[in-house]
Amino acid sequence: MRVILAEDSVLLRAGLARLLTDEGHEVVAEVGDAPALLAAVAADQPDVVVADVRMPPTHRDDGLRAALEIRDRWPAVGVLVLSQYVERRYAVELLTTRSDGVGYLLKDRVAEVGEFLDALDRVAAGRAAFDPEVVRQLLARTSHTDPLRRLTPREAEVLDRMGQGHTNAGIAAQLHVSQSAVEKHVNAIFDKLGLSHTTGYSRRVLAVLHYLGS
Question: Which CATH code is given to the segment(s) 2-143?
C-alpha cells in the first residue's frame, strides 16, 4: 500500500518508514508537521496516512485536526492516528466523523509490529482499528453504566473486540467460538444498548463507541 507518515519525531518517523518499506509498502512522503501533511495528501493521495495526534505548529491536536480534514476532503484515504496516551476526547471525535478506514493506536503499540501492521491493513481496507487500551478506557469511563452492567461476561468480551474494529469472524477466531455464536452476542449487545435500529457497519463501531464516549 502507499503510505504518508506524519510524525515530528525524526527517529520514530525513520523507524516507521524503514518498517513499512521492509514490509513491501511504499512510503510516498514523510513530514513533520500538520500543514506539510495536508500538502502531501493534496499532492498525492495515499492509501493510508499515519499521523501523530500532537504535532507542530502548536504541539496540541494539530495532527488530529489534519486527520479530520483529510477524512472530510479525501474520504478514500484511510487515517491511522498515533497517540502517546489515551486521549478520550480525541478518540471519540475521530470516531464520530466516520467509522470506516479509521484507527487510533497508542505509540507503544507500534513496537508490537504485527499488531501495528494488522491495524494498518484494516484501515487501508476501509475498516476500523482501535487500540485495545483505548476501548477499555472508554468502557471504564462511560457514564452509561446500567446498560453495560446488563452485558454478560462473554458479551463484554465481544464488545471490547468490536470496539477495536474486528469482524465477527475475527472475534470468533480470537475467542475460539463459532461465528454464529458471535453474531448472537452482537445482536444481544445492540439490544441491550438500544442500538438495534441502527444500520450498517457504523452500528458496530461508531454507534457503540459514540454511545460509550458521550
Answer: 3.40.50.2300
